[in-house]
């Protein structure tokens, strides 16, 4: 590190809390080192209370960009100067750019494009498909909007009746009002409708986090009849690498099961491109970290 950092080194930050567990600092710093780019990436424990000052700090210090995670993804929007069209539609930001350090901050969201690229790299085409998904929180909204922008024919969202249900209703309205995709929302308690929807879909996406601690013993699908040999099952969770859902789907003959590692990698790669203008060496990073 001391060989790399000098008076010219440019800083990229990550602002979130909790954040010490994040893979992002290692991912970006390894990629900078591999490409010989004079940047350093640091994580800062920042919550909503410190957020306004932190954003001023980005401007004042000429920090060239920042990743943003919970609980700041929506809260940061009023402090930014501009949003990308996708961030505007999603209503959340995970990447901020500060071009040439001049203080004009643009918010982007790369979770949805990261998820779509992860599917593409696995040979899964979303265009023209019927997709069923569960979860409409931060990750689910970004995926839903990007899937619609990328040409999914029908997107059927199922959510439990919690505080995210309303977000899901808004997402469905945005998709139907701004894209060619036909989106619907159904309460997940209607299990017959959920199973029927998956039987008509080529892709099922679980964006709920069920399957990750403390719900690692749970899965939203437990009926073997739901899994077909032409169904792709994608779970955004990456710890564990194989959730109960993915194991169940694999054992019952799903066409493909995909975990959240690719989404994690490609959302980072797109942020890296925004920060540096360069392509992240994704094969190298995948080998090193995943
Ligand atoms: P969130 O809290 O914003 O949303 C969670 C969603 O799941 C909501 O729609 C909620 O209604 C639903 N839900 C919660 N508990 C449920 C249950 N028991 N049964 C059914 N539905 C339930 O969370 P988020 O920020 O969207 O994160 C969701 C998951 O996505 C987490 O596991 C997170 O780690 C993962 N994630 C992965 C990546 C990646 O790059 N792979 C990126 C972001 C988030």
UniProtKB/TrEMBL annotation:
Binding site for shikimate: 22-24, 69, 94, 111, 238, 267
EC number: 1.1.1.25
Keywords in alphabetical order: Amino-acid biosynthesis, Aromatic amino acid biosynthesis, NADP, Oxidoreductase
Assembly and oligomerization: Homodimer.
List of catalytic residues: 73
Stored NCBIfam families: aroE (TIGR00507), PRK00258.2-1 (NF001313), PRK00258.3-3 (NF001319)
Pfam families: SDH_C (PF18317), Shikimate_dh_N (PF08501)
Name of the molecule in the record: Shikimate dehydrogenase (NADP(+))
Organism ancestry: Bacteria, Bacillati, Bacillota, Bacilli, Lactobacillales
Pathway: Metabolic intermediate biosynthesis; chorismate biosynthesis; chorismate from D-erythrose 4-phosphate and phosphoenolpyruvate: step 4/7; Aromatic compound metabolism; 3,4-dihydroxybenzoate biosynthesis; 3-dehydroquinate from D-quinate (NAD(+) route)
One GO BP: shikimate metabolic process
SUPFAM superfamilies per record: Aminoacid dehydrogenase-like, N-terminal domain, NAD(P)-binding Rossmann-fold domains
Signal peptide region: none
Enzyme class: oxidoreductase
GO MF annotation terms: NADP binding; quinate 3-dehydrogenase (NAD+) activity; shikimate 3-dehydrogenase (NAD+) activity; shikimate 3-dehydrogenase (NADP+) activity
